[in-house]
């Protein structure tokens, strides 16, 4: 029988659920922090008071870059000054900000003038021969032909023309067996439960259709692009580490073929039409040997709560021939959604760590640039610059761009005296949390730039290499996104419960007495000369998250009066609308400020820069993921992840989105929570 060991019981703050900690990241906070390096926090490397303007000579915006992120169709949204007539500066989606929603409300809450509907849910059959959803008889074979669990990265892409057809791409981060199966089924069918979990991971590509522009989408069963990519799908490996001894196992003596992708979190859509997906908390699936490199990535000895090793020996690194199996996860993977028969690729040139995001930008000189955060407290921010240039319309060539290039890690510096950064969140005397930084190269093409590391060692053990060169410890770097109008880059830092007052710095300036940087923040980065391939950048904090109405809160919104902003905590995924407003989804608000996780719009230009307005809230225990903003189509899309995660079978805390608590356990609607992709659309035409 599967057992859930919950080491975070009694140690979570506020309303954070121990089961969330265990299933999402393997209760990472209960283990020693993997980064035990002596690397400086931000303030420790900022002793020299160097003016960012004088040192870098940074100019205007970056609108010359081509940016393709989660909102992409086939080209970047044009730069435009048309901000509409709305006083908050925002595009074609006028709305009055909603009030924050209590965390126990089991419903989607949207603004007046909008409605919502699910497009696709966990278990929906994708193919003509897919079995119907049946919670009492789920197996790996049935799940492999159904929509996966716990949706995260999302894009919804129109085919153009009459806008009646398109497709979505969605990643599936992890599984919640305690609300997916009854205890009796878990006890009597442990192999089926584990195999279902393996097949519920990965990604789904699903065809869509609708009646016309502005109308809600529905998914197409048996669509020509429909595909499941799971924990057992064959992948190829490319880049400088492909074929390395560090990637070889008894099942793959070439080190170039891997079964499956795991814990797929945020990602991105490339300018050439493929999808990137980051393998994040993959460490939790493996039983470790105690090796240093395993500890640095978070893999520990002893049984895992998932016990996948009881079905497949590769998940125990102590088994003969499988010592390197975990090295084959933790990469950026690339998938061609237009070709369901294509073999997806793991790109070693982008490094191995807990990837959150894979945001692709074409620089003004034509190079592909990919930004990615390493989602762990005190870990790092990275970017990759391709060796070859992008060719418009040459998809075959462009799909080789991520195979070779330069991998960088970020080092930040602040502008203010250390004495002004004391953990209180008080704005420095110069009026801004800001500074400058540099990108430190780790690998260039097939050459290591880190002393004592081969190129394969840098790419497989990227955290250890970044420790060596003095990268800057950050507060859980999550999603990176580039503004399609200005080209500026934004980084969400979700939180860091372990930050202390003696380790704060100008980019991480809060250490609450209740536990570190509780609510997180968002950083704006401007690459030197407007060039995404540059090795220097400016940065400033756009906002320090929090609830201004709560006593002792350190919220800051770039000067916007606190009584104007919506409370926000734990920024996670980022997105943009067509006129360059930032949209921020959250992961953890219930446990920090007591409200349901949500999606917010943030104004970036003009007198209201920093204004946060809440657009929607997700159901009880759920997380808001993968926002996609089609403001010209009056639509917003989100992935609703782990609704009802705090419940148990027979005592569910959510019945989203079917809402049939007394209903059946099989068929179109079932009496259990189901992660789903949701469209929010205007009812005003």
From TrEMBL:
InterPro entries for this protein: PhoX, TAT_signal
Superkingdom of source: Bacteria
Coiled coil ranges: none
Annotated Pfam families: PhoX
PANTHER family reported for this sequence: DUF839 DOMAIN-CONTAINING PROTEIN, SLR8030 PROTEIN
Protein name: PhoX family phosphatase
Source organism per UniProt: Citricoccus nitrophenolicus
Taxonomic classification: Bacteria, Bacillati, Actinomycetota, Actinomycetes, Micrococcales
């Amino acid at each position: 029988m599967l057992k859930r060991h919950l080491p975070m019981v009694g140690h979570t703050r506020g309303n954070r659920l121990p089961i969330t900690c265990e299933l999402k990241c393997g209760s990472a906070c209960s283990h020693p922090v993997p980064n035990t390096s002596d690397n400086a926090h931000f303030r420790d490397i900022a002793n020299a008071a160097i003016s960012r303007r004088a040192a870098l000579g940074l100019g205007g915006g970056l609108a010359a870059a081509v940016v393709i992120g989660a909102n992409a169709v086939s080209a970047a949204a044009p730069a435009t000054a048309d901000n509409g007539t709305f006083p908050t500066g925002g595009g074609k989606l006028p709305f009055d900000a909603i009030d924050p929603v209590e965390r126990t409300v089991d419903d989607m809450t949207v603004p007046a003038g909008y409605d919502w509907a699910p497009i696709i849910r966990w278990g929906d059959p994708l193919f003509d021969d897919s079995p119907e959803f049946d919670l009492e008889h789920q197996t790996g074979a049935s799940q492999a032909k159904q929509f996966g669990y716990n949706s995260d990265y999302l894009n919804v892409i129109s085919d153009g023309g009459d806008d009646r057809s398109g497709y979505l791409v969605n990643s599936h981060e992890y599984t919640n067996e305690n609300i997916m199966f009854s205890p009796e089924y878990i006890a009597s069918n442990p192999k089926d439960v584990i195999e279902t979990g393996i097949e519920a991971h990965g990604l789904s590509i699903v065809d869509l259709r609708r009646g016309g522009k502005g109308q809600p989408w529905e998914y197409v069963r048996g669509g020509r692009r429909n595909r499941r990519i799971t924990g057992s799908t064959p992948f190829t490996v490319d880049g400088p580490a492909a074929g390395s001894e560090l990637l070889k196992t008894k099942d793959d003596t070439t080190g170039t073929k891997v079964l499956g992708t795991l814990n797929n979190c945020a990602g991105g859509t490339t300018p050439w039409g493929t999808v990137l997906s980051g393998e994040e908390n993959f460490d939790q699936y493996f039983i470790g040997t105690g090796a240093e490199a395993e500890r640095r990535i978070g893999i520990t000895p002893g049984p895992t709560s998932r016990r996948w090793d009881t079905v497949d020996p590769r998940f125990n690194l102590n088994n003969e021939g499988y010592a390197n199996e975990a090295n084959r996860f933790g990469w950026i993977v690339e998938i061609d959604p237009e070709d369901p028969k294509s073999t997806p690729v793991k790109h070693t040139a982008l490094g191995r760590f807990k990837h959150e995001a894979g945001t692709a930008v074409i620089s003004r000189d034509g190079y592909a640039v990919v930004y990615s955060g390493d989602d762990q407290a005190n870990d790092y921010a990275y970017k990759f610059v391709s060796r070859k240039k992008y060719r418009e319309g040459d998809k075959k060539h462009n799909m080789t761009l991520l195979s070779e290039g330069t991998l960088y890690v970020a080092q930040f510096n602040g502008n203010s005296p250390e004495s002004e950064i004391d953990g209180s969140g008080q704005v420095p005397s110069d009026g801004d949390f800001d500074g400058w930084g540099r990108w430190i190269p780790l690998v260039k093409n097939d050459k290591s730039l880190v002393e004592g590391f081969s190129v394969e060692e840098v790419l497989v053990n990227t955290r250890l290499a970044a420790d060596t060169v003095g990268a800057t410890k950050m507060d859980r770097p999550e999603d990176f996104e580039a503004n399609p109008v200005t080209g500026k880059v934004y980084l969400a830092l979700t939180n860091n419960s372990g930050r202390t007052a003696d380790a704060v710095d100008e980019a991480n300036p809060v250490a609450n007495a209740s536990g570190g940087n509780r609510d997180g923040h968002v950083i704006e980065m401007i690459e030197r000369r407007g060039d995404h391939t540059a090795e220097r950048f400016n940065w400033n904090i756009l906002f320090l998250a929090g609830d201004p109405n709560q006593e002792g809160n350190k919220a800051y919104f770039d000067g916007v009066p606190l009584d104007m902003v919506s409370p926000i905590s734990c920024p996670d995924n980022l997105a943009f609308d067509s006129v360059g407003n930032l949209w921020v989804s959250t992961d953890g608000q219930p446990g920090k400020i007591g409200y349901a996780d949500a999606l917010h719009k943030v104004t970036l230009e003009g007198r209201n820069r920093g204004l946060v307005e809440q657009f929607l809230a997700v159901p009880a225990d759920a997380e808001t993921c993968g926002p996609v903003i089609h403001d010209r189509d009056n639509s917003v899309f989100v992935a609703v992840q782990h609704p009802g995660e705090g419940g148990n079978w027979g005592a569910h805390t959510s019945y989203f989105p079917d809402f049939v608590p007394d209903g059946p356990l099989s068929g179109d609607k079932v009496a259990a929570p189901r992660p789903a992709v949701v469209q929010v659309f205007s009812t005003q035409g």
